[in-house]
Amino acid sequence: MEGRSVVKLVIFLACCPSAFALNPSLDANQYAHKAWTIREGFFKGRITSIAQTPDGYLWLGSEFGLLRFDGVQAVPWQPPTGERLPNNYVDSLLAAHDGRLWIGTRGGLASWKDGKLAYYAELAGYIIFSLLEDREGTVWAAAYGVPTGRLCAIRSGGLQCYGQDASFGQWVTSLYEENGHLWAGAETGVWRWKPGPPKLYRMQAPMQLNQALNDDNGRLLISMSGGISQLVDGKLEAYPIPGTGAHFNPTHLFRDRDGSLWIGTRDQGVWHVHHGRADRFAQLDGLSDDDVLTMFEDREGDIWIATHGGLDRFRDFAIPTISVKQGLSSDPVWSVLAARDGSVWIATREALNRWNRGQVTVYRQPGGPPSQAESLFEDDRGRIWESSKNGTAYFEDGRSIPVNSLPPGSAHSITEDSVGNFWFSQDQGLVHLAGEGRAERIPWPDLGHNGSAPTLTADRMDGGVWLGFYPDGLTYFKDGHVRASYSARDGLGEGAVTGVQLDRDETVWAVTEGGLSRVKNGRIATLTSRNGLPCDTVHWMMEDGDGSVWLYLACGLARIDRSDLNAWAINPKHTIKATVFDSSDGVAARAISIGYSPRVSKATDGRIWFVAESGVGVLDPRHLSLNKLPPPVHIEQITADRKDYWKNSYGDASSKLRLPPLTRDLEIDYTALSLVAPEKIRFRVKLEGRDPDWKDMGTERKAFYNDLPPRNYHFRVMACNNSGVWNEAGASFDFSIDPTYYQTTWFKIACAAAFLSVLWGVYRLRLYQIAREFNVRLEERVGERTRIARDLHDTLLQSFQGLMLRLQVVDELLPPGKAKEQLEQSLERGDQAIAEGRSAVHDLRTSTTTTNDLAQAVRSVADELAGDGSPTFRLMVEGPVRDLHPIMRDEVYRIAREALRNAFTHSQASRIEAEITYGERLLRMRIRDDGRGIPPDILDAGRSGHYGLKGIRERARQIGAILDIWSGIGTGTEVDLSVPGAIAYSKSPRRSPLQLFLKKVG
């Protein structure tokens, strides 16, 4: 078919206007352009068709298959296993409103949705040249076939084809719909297919119709070999495009949302027709190739053009540039001045230019060499002053009038004071021109500086002049004297002062290489990167009409809210927030300030004009090109230990992935679909179950995790576009890492149980060792006590007893008298001492080792201490009886024995009670009487020479028990001993013989 000698017509597809569109007032070369070329390896074949699905992906049909593009990388699309497209050569694509992607190939038609590929057997073997979805939702396919072409409609899954009667000829190649009218381009001519019966508009020669569109008057435009025609009353008429020339071969027509017409050609690149003029963008301008294959506009208003050499994108710059291609005399630009009449004067290397409503007027010296215009100024009379190496002149009534009274040399800056005097900054010094008289030059050393002043500004309120110096310094000059001078030592920003601006409140702003300095009442503060400035070097400052301050920095153009700047002026520690526009927004970064004064100027319409890299930049603060669409976010791929476990084939990340045990290196690839400036998309990620908060990833599109423990995870990612609009919903993905056997819960429980068992065994072993050591020591103590008791009984007590018998014999021999009375008293005391000694021997020989029943031991002590006239004794036991630890039983018994001895011996009580409670957590013993009580002083400190109370307190403290003694004169005494069960008991509960007997007979 390509070999046929045919007239080629193009019916172009129009798009509805949208808020997101290119600025129609700009030429194509003023848009941001980027090319992806086949030569650089971006993809291996020509791109023949483009579509964008609702999820934001751009789909590219090529000679070798289908590609999915996110603005950064093109990934070859692979159909499900076991399936394939009818043919790998993709001629047409259509993204329908329901999300289905229609794929027209050189072997038939297919569609792809929700991971399923569908085929249409009726079109098998046909070449699908064009696809269209009408406003009713019907999908139309235009096909080439042998012997006849087809036009097919697909509704509700059913397919109906037309053209079997050869009415279309061998092919149908283009489709277009507007306002319910469906047009089709075929070999036999142009068909208006609906509404009403189909109608054919025959052409004079065989033709190949590709695309169609309506012009501003509602007429159908058709691209043919040699030019563009329009269908008027059924006849073709020429539709001339100015500047295209005789060899104009358009292949595609495309009208974007703002109404501009894009024309793709066979060998001239692309033509852009807007506002009554046409401009061209070709391979010499950076287009990937001059042979255009197809064009497309995405949802953000970007224009995509596929050529034989690659893929190109055009988008709006937030800050476009006017250059030689828009009519300027030359590059570079040295200064720019917005006049009060609405025109803009631009000083270039060759001449002075005047921009007025898009028209450029160039002022050159007649017949002379090019004159390099440098600094510019508009005086109070509206005259435009121009300084160059040829001298200084002003424009008045359309004529350039030289000022011969000035010393030779060009001026870096010009200003006018409040009384009409002019000041010029020249290389040699400051020049003062008063009226029409001679000019006076003041050398720079007379002003305290060795360098020159690249900028000067008149103080209209005070009458003086502010001068900014190179290499540094700011000076105020008035009435022939320097009134103030500041440098970096005073807090001024370091480096050259390249601009000075005065506020109405007499605040002076100095633009320096070291920041933005504020001078007010002799006090200086400098705004730098420490206070939130993106970088320190400032080239100029300008305030717009909407309350924002613009700073041209070495790193781009920054916008700061005036209120934020005022907050910093009040508190120098305040951190400002700045929005930065960089090279992706049309602003070139510059390390040093280039040009003459003024470098920036605000026009009467509010636009800010400034010296740019290769021309003049135009900033419209009220009409910035901002992208308000939050970018769709998708997770692309999950890779672990260099193995791909999951890939996103069509934006579906709803499934849950299980990763194998011992997964170490995990990589999660994600993307966001903002095609305006993909390089400026920023991401935040959070792995729930690992990350405590969101992590700022910058522009990185991969997240890495190492040595994740086995568990369930929820990965989330959000993104913002180039204008800072966030898609906070983002995308998410659930996955889990399986545990290996030693990471499972049951294994950990088994290990914990084994550890506790070992720990319990060690504890029991240690307890056994302690008990054995205690028993050994206890037996040693008992043996020692028994030996001491035996020795005391066999020696000391026997000796005392023998001595008492001898004294008794002496007592019987003595006659009655005082001596006999004294001896008998001594004998009584001796008997008492022997009784106490026997009691001590008894205590030494008595031990609780013979029984572990505390109640029985207490009962035995009470029985031992009771006698005639003794108080009644009552013992109560609560809870099942439990064996005590060997260490505990002796100490508790001795505390009980001492308490009972005091009660029986000293209390003079009529009733004594002992209560023993065997609790699970506490062993409690209480002994109380109703006797005379213990005096407070004795209760606290004990009786002099006696250690009963002190002893039981010491014993209780040694065994970790709590001992409380309550008593008062005439109120009796109560001893309360509490021992924790963990240290008191040694075995499980058991019942006393008395309890067992009562239970048996009960």
Describe this structure in words.
- The structure is a single chain.
- With 1002 residues, the protein is an alpha+beta fold.
- The chain has four domains: 7-316, 7 Propeller (Methylamine Dehydrogenase, Chain H); 322-623, YVTN repeat-like/Quinoprotein amine dehydrogenase (Methylamine Dehydrogenase, Chain H, 7 Propeller), CATH 2.130.10.10; 633-743, Immunoglobulins (Immunoglobulin-like, Sandwich); 851-1002, Histidine kinase-like ATPase, C-terminal domain (Heat Shock Protein 90, 2-Layer Sandwich), CATH 3.30.565.10.
- 17% of the residues lie in helices and 41% in strands.
- The chain has a five-stranded mixed β-sheet with strand order 2-25-26-27-28, with no helix packed on it.
- Helix 2 (745-813) runs antiparallel to helix 3 (818-845).
- The model is unreliable at 1-19, 205-211 and 988-1002 (pLDDT under 50).
